[in-house]
Specification:
The chain has 2 domains: 53 residues, Arc Repressor Mutant, subunit A (Orthogonal Bundle); 140 residues, Tetracycline Repressor, domain 2 (Orthogonal Bundle), CATH 1.10.357.10. Helix content is 77%, strand content 0%. It contains 11 helices and no strands. The chain is elongated, with a radius of gyration of 19 Å. The mean pLDDT is 82.
Length: 202
């Protein structure tokens, strides 16, 4: 049965509210108001409250929405991405998203007293990451000795670090270059890649 126009419109409003709320909270932190979120999303304040009765509900929904999108993106990359680069692309994307959500995580912790941990959500992606890893190893992009639990540990650690500290794009790239060097090869080339990163960072 086709989705009703009213229901489809409500879903679009919810998605738009979440996207704009994430941007507003990232820009303004705790001073961000629900009214500003509504204005940026182009909806009435009542529409925001209908979907998210409290700011806590909105913050939690932002995190949940992010995790759902990351899961979908992992599956898409696993199915259609370039085997030689898909795993590395996903690493970069995950870390960038974690860094961008630092403000949301901080606000959620202040409101609920609970620190957002990425270990549980990241582990739900393990099946898709296993596919990315296997394809990368099959085409020679990743050392065949690398195991899934090692990749998941690295992914969890880098995402948690970016989330807690809001890593700059430069720090993200320098850190991931070192991580990728270890994943790609355990030969002299890996050491050369790490040395190059350290020279660039001074």
């Amino acid at each position: 049965m086709p989705e009703s126009p009213v229901r489809a419109d409500a879903k679009r409003n919810r998605s738009r509210i979440l996207a704009e709320a994430a941007a507003v909270f990232a820009e303004k932190g705790a001073s961000a108001s629900t009214e500003e979120v509504a204005a940026r999303a182009g909806v009435a304040i009542g529409t925001v409250f209908r979907h998210f009765p409290t700011k806590r509900d909105l913050l939690q929904a932002i995190v949940k929405d992010l995790l759902e999108r990351l899961t979908e993106e992992a599956a898409t990359l696993a199915a259609d991405g370039d085997p030689a680069t898909a795993l590395f692309d996903y690493f970069r994307h995950m870390v960038a998203q974690a860094a961008a959500k630092k403000t949301v995580a901080d606000l959620l912790a202040a409101d609920t007293g609970v620190q957002l941990e990425v270990s549980g959500p990241v582990l739900t992606l393990s099946a898709a990451v296993q596919t990315l890893l296997s394809r990368a190893q099959h085409c020679g992009a990743v050392d065949p000795a690398v195991r899934l639990d090692e990749v998941m540990a690295l992914l969890t650690a880098t995402c948690q670090g970016a989330l807690r500290s809001g890593w700059s794009p430069d720090l993200q790239e320098r850190t991931l270059t070192i991580v990728f060097a270890g994943l790609r090869d355990r030969s002299s080339q890996a050491g050369e890649d790490v040395a190059a990163v350290r020279r660039r960072s001074g």
